[in-house]
Write the structure tokens for this entry.
Amino acid sequence: MLEGYVPPRALAALFELLAREPGAVVISGDVVDAAGRHGVAIRMPGVIGGAHDLIFDRETHVYLGFRGSVIRGGKESLHAAAARLRVAIVDRPGQLP
């Protein structure tokens, strides 16, 4: 859902859902997305000790991207990351903004 355009009311509903997700915590320290932008994250518990962090801009709360991590040997290591750089509405498939 966060990989494309999400209407404002649906996005607000998603954020409300995230706020109520059992085990979700806010990582208020400096979190960096795959494009090097700094933000704050909501950490969702993953499977087998891993986690999925949804990263947001600290000022505007715009969704920046995610990072996934796993715990191996007591250490957390990054296994996936993505950054959402641009979302646009166009007239037809394949058209660039």
